[in-house]
Amino acid sequence: MAIEVRIPTILRSYTDGAKAVEGKGGTLEELIGDLEVRHPGLRDRLVEQGALRRFVNVYLNDEDVRFLGGLETPVADGDTVTVLPAVAGGAR
Amino acid sequence: MLRISQELADRIVAHARADHPDEACGVIAGPVGSDRPERFIQMENAERSPTFYRFDSMEQLRVWREMDDRDEEPVVIYHSHTATEAYPSRTDISYASEPNAHYVLVSTRDEVDVEFRSYRIADGVVTEEEVTFVK
Predict the structure, then answer these.
(1) What is the CATH number of the domain that holds A71?
(2) Measured between alpha carbons, how far is residue B88 from residues B10, B11, B102, B109 in Å?
(3) Which chain A residues are closer than 8 Å to B19 by Cβ?
């Protein structure tokens, strides 16, 4: 068992086009570190100055990890992590 | 080029008018690879702002999953500008994250006329495209 990570279209250049990859770790931060080994560059698109990037949404199963503990959120085998770039913009 | 039914275009404009002076936003889904906008999904602007929009993160997860289950993708991503022209701002360009989508902008700054324009935004480059309204 591992943790499934679903990758959005715009980040699939880091995963050879794969829609989902697998990783391991006890927290989201460790999971991202594990993914970085096989998919170099991915971490930079998710993390900035030790925190999740503001315009990237990361979900653990059905919850936004911002409401769970950010990078410290505990993860376990069998979980699904979904990454979605925020859809945002505006005249400002 | 964006081909869109007049009915769907009217729904975008109606949503933008209804939420004015706040920005309105949403998606039109279509079958993956078809480039056909078909299913209108009005989204909540979590920012409720006249100068900024952001999809609510939980609503976005639900809608993106639903599209995945139905083999759809966001063919159109629309939002309104309420006091400026229907042209992507620097903010729009820096957050654009769906390279395959048509980014539709409408401006509701005029009470009668509405600007309806469409763009591709990829790697920080904006390309305006022609819009064809079909029955």
Answers:
(1) 3.10.20.30
(2) 20, 20, 12, 15
(3) none
